[in-house]
Design a protein that fits this description.
The structure is a homodimer of 454-residue chains. With 454 residues, chain A is mostly helical. Chain A has 3 domains: 6-136, MgtE N-terminal fold (Alpha Horseshoe), CATH 1.25.60; 149-257, CBS-domain; 277-451, Tetracycline Repressor, domain 2, CATH 1.10.357.20. Helices cover 68% and strands 6% of the residues of chain A. Chain A contains 25 helices and 6 strands. Chain A has helices at 3-6, 8-24, 28-36, 40-49, 52-59, 64-73, 76-85, 88-97, 100-109, 112-121, 125-132, 139-142, 156-165, 190-195, 202-205, 219-228, 249-267, 282-309, 311-316, 319-322, 324-347, 356-386, 389-419, 424-427, 429-451, and strands spanning 149-151, 174-178, 184-189, 213-214, 233-237, 243-248. In chain A, the strands form 2 sheets. A 3-stranded mixed β-sheet of chain A has the order 1-2-3. In chain A, strands 4-5-6 form a 3-stranded mixed β-sheet. In chain A, a hairpin with a 5-residue loop joins strand 5 and strand 6 (243-248). In chain A, helix 23 (389-419) packs antiparallel against helix 25 (429-451). The longest helix of chain A has 31 residues, at 356-386. The first copy, chain A, is elongated and about 90 Å long. Chains A and B meet through helix 13, helix 14, strand 4, helix 16 and helix 17 of A and helix 13, helix 14, strand 4, helix 16 and helix 17 of B.
Chain lengths: 454, 454
């Protein structure tokens, strides 16, 4: 970043201390003046770290638009918390200043009764209500109703006049064009409109090649569509192709970040956190993880049963137990490698369910190759370590089979989950380890029984 | 997606078959006509799956701009492959039609001699050369030199005229304003320019609040800056604040997806793949994983040493080995949960290195709580399973300590990596498992020695 940006974090930290100090001394007005001079994103960063009472101090007397800007930049849960502290009238006024899609999101996070009461107090009620009907993570939940639809028979100069008079908070590069019944028929850029001859009808120069999403489309699918076609705005239509809203690129950037966070946290076997990490309490973090950890503990008991089943084998050759951690560890690693590749290929749509057999076949070949390589390493280690070629053969064969098996399982698990309509990241990571641990032990000790003829 | 989009994949698949058939029969012109009728993104999707010879068939006779559009949508490695097949003159002509940043990327992927020769044949040589100086993953590598800088003393009507006459491939919503020396001084939107009175100077209404990146800034940092401030274009400046390029939002969307893919693949312990999954050969996939798997195998040998160290203990109480997979598995799971949370918090900048102690303290408390809960479960299982309260105490104590320990290690490893300037995802996932396995075994068997006084 440039010099002023490199130190953005320090600058924000410094401002935070200063504002905190002023509020502490009761000099609210001075603190507000500093806040007002900042960009919304920085305002939000400082604001979110202030104690509850100081947040309220700031909000009293801050212009409504400023408050709306700050709340728009905060995480959903943080906003819901602050909203709970404000008198309903003030909250309604702030919501009126927010972008419709953000206001609808916030209302959706409040207890139903509160949401209804506050909606009743709002001026933009009619604009917001339809947005409340859609689930948060769909195109309908993501879109804004603040858009300007232009008629296809409009002259360029009239369209330009309409755009000039319409003063949205966000500026748009593209404007969507509809027919008399409100069906989406095309798109025109501001530059096209400026360049067109004043009396040209929009339909004479607009672009007809339309990509759109229906209101119930998944937000991740919308993100991919926009990313693939390089769109900065995606029109949302109902089942009859009527234009009902627009998704803008800044919302999609947030969706992509959130979805990647969810994927990564789920792969690690923890429920995604709704709040920034340092704002979540010990108990909230524990709650997001402990259920899954206990579930895995219970499934992990299968390994204990497998070990008990082979207790005789383990007793007669104690050296076998020495290799247990190495063998199941290696199996887990091979499985993780595969699963990470497959999950990501699934989530960026490089592959889908119908490719299951091709993927399995790909991974079977990879598994055989990797299994052979690791088998040689295992054979050498155990032969030298135990001074017994039969032990070498046991460990080598077992580790080779385990790597082959984990690679194949690692490719199938996410695809099966996706077929069953379950999020592949959920059943991958730690669940895969447990499956691979138990089956790997079974493979290992069966091989040992054969080769060492116990 | 709307009906036409829901079936986009099938539609593309169908078109692919049709085009493949036509090319096979030598009806190249017909295939080209179909290709030309599609959007660039769809053209690229069909094109990338065609065999090499059919790709060349298509490219011969396709207008240069169409070819440029297709190549821009493909992955870097795919383009480099195709570029290698084309005569240098044709390639130079195609590159002239591409966006400067994409053309520079492509040249950067070619062997140095070829790149120099082709650059010499290009008309846009002067525009591209400066872009070649910057590393691919920096602001300089990401920016385009195709931008229009407006002078601060320009009248609104003159600026509008300049914008009208400038016909870039991409349309821009914001235009950056510079002083006489070319220093970045502000930004004006197209709408602001339209609305301003014709003789108003840009500096009288432009926005002075400037966020910019220097040419050597990391691309991920640029993505975060744009996401945080909701920018659709980010100006890039040199060390003297001269405007040298612009990064557009569509590039950032790609960066975010690529970075998340890299994170996820590294967490799984595989080197990121450069090509779409199904296009990589068995050998390429194996190569991306086998080195890491062998390295982990070698570090995993520490577990074998720990087990050998305690061979006496394991021999005298064989039941102890039965719990080995469960204990190290649970430790690994607790560690993965923590690491996933921390890695993601680091990569979306919720925390940074200076928060290391706060994070550790947070995770220590979480670890104690989780350790206690799992200890109770372990105690009950082993007491009931072995009919011996001392075994219950051993397993319960060991598993509690292991969970506490793995949680703490899981929070520290990524932070230490980040302090050392290593990518935290690299040392996390599988490496963490190995560390936790070895130390976990040591904790377990030491606890057993004490409690069972072996």
């Amino acid at each position: 970043m440039s010099t002023q940006d490199l130190s953005r974090e320090q600058r924000v930290d410094q401002l935070y201390s200063r504002i905190h100090e002023l509020l502490d001394r009761g000099e609210t007005r001075k603190a507000q003046i500093i806040i007002e001079a900042l960009l919304p994103a920085d305002q939000a960063e400082i604001f979110r770290d202030l104690p509850d009472d100081e947040q309220l101090q700031i909000l009293q007397g801050l212009p409504l638009e400023e408050t709306a800007d700050i709340l728009e930049k905060l995480e959903d849960e943080e906003v819901a918390e602050i909203a709970g502290l404000l008198p309903p009238e003030q909250l309604a006024n702030i919501l009126d200043e927010m972008e419709p899609d953000e206001a609808a999101d916030l209302l959706g996070d409040l207890p139903a009764e509160d949401a209804v009461r506050i909606l009743g107090l709002m001026e933009t009620q009619e604009e917001i209500s339809p947005l409340l009907l859609h689930a948060d993570e769909t195109a309908g939940g993501l879109m804004t109703s603040e858009y300007l639809a232009l008629g296809q028979n409009m002259w360029a100069e009239r369209a330009l006049e309409a755009i000039r008079q319409w003063a949205p908070e966000h500026e748009y590069l593209y404007y969507f064009v509809v027919d008399k019944e409100g069906h989406l028929v095309g798109v025109a850029s501001l530059l096209q409109i400026i360049k067109a001859s004043p009396k040209a009808e929009l339909q004479s120069f607009m672009d007809r090649n339309r990509i759109s999403a229906t209101v119930d489309a998944d937000q991740e699918a919308c993100a991919q569509l926009m990313s693939w076609y390089d769109l900065t705005a995606l029109p949302v239509v109902d089942d009859n192709q009527h234009l009902v809203g627009v998704i803008t690129i800044d919302d999609i950037v947030d969706v992509l970040e959130d979805e990647a966070t969810e994927d990564i946290q789920r792969l690690g076997g923890a429920a995604p956190l709704d709040k920034p990490y340092l704002r979540t309490s010990t108990w909230e973090v524990t709650r997001s993880r402990v259920g899954w950890l206990l579930l895995l503990f219970i499934t992990g008991l299968i390994t204990t049963s497998v070990m008990e089943h082979f207790e005789g084998v383990l007793k007669s050759v104690v050296a076998l137990s020495i290799y247990v951690p190495l063998l199941i560890g290696t199996g887990g690693n091979a499985g993780s490698q595969t699963i990470a590749t497959i999950i990501r290929a699934l989530s960026v749509n490089e592959i889908d369910r119908k490719d299951a057999l091709r993927v399995l076949w790909h991974e079977i070949r990879v598994g055989i190759l990797m299994g052979l390589i690791v088998a040689i390493a295992g054979f050498l280690r155990a032969w030298i370590g135990e001074g017994d070629p039969l032990m070498g053969l046991t460990i080598g064969t077992a580790i080779g089979l385990i790597v082959f098996w984990s690679t194949s399982v690692g490719s199938l698990l996410p695809l099966i989950a996706s077929l069953l309509g379950v999020d592949p990241t959920l059943v991958s990571g730690p669940l895969m380890s447990t499956v691979v641990d138990a089956t790997g032990l079974f493979i290992y000790l069966t091989v040992a029984q054969w080769i060492l003829s116990i």
